[in-house]
């Protein structure tokens, strides 16, 4: 199992443990949209390959029925460091995204492209 898939699995397990123990008005927070920022840092010399791989995920992901947001950013002061802002309707939609062939193709290349493990930061929206 590659580093990207391991990182996603660990992050999701931690996030789900928190979601399962919380509720809002009697509704488990697992029914809330899942909003996250993925931080991906390219290996030296792999900046353009990582950027191309991430860009290839954007359009097909946006067409997924459970996707709410999927936008790629590059850190201005540190080219080769990317932030993917993403939101999915629920855990099932995120799981479906991870199972998509285009995501699996990207995940298979991640160990060759990433300088450090993916950092997946889950967020709770607190304003409109």
Automatic annotation (TrEMBL):
<keyword id="KW-0732">Signal</keyword>
<dbReference type="InterPro" id="IPR050744">
    <property type="entry name" value="AI-2_Isomerase_LsrG"/>
</dbReference>
<dbReference type="GO" id="GO:0004497">
    <property type="term" value="F:monooxygenase activity"/>
</dbReference>
<protein>
    <submittedName>
        <fullName>Quinol monooxygenase YgiN</fullName>
    </submittedName>
</protein>
<dbReference type="InterPro" id="IPR011008">
    <property type="entry name" value="Dimeric_a/b-barrel"/>
</dbReference>
<keyword id="KW-0560">Oxidoreductase</keyword>
<feature type="signal peptide">
    <location>
        <begin position="1"/>
        <end position="22"/>
    </location>
</feature>
<dbReference type="Pfam" id="PF03992">
    <property type="entry name" value="ABM"/>
</dbReference>
<feature type="domain" description="ABM">
    <location>
        <begin position="34"/>
        <end position="122"/>
    </location>
</feature>
<dbReference type="InterPro" id="IPR007138">
    <property type="entry name" value="ABM_dom"/>
</dbReference>
<keyword id="KW-0503">Monooxygenase</keyword>
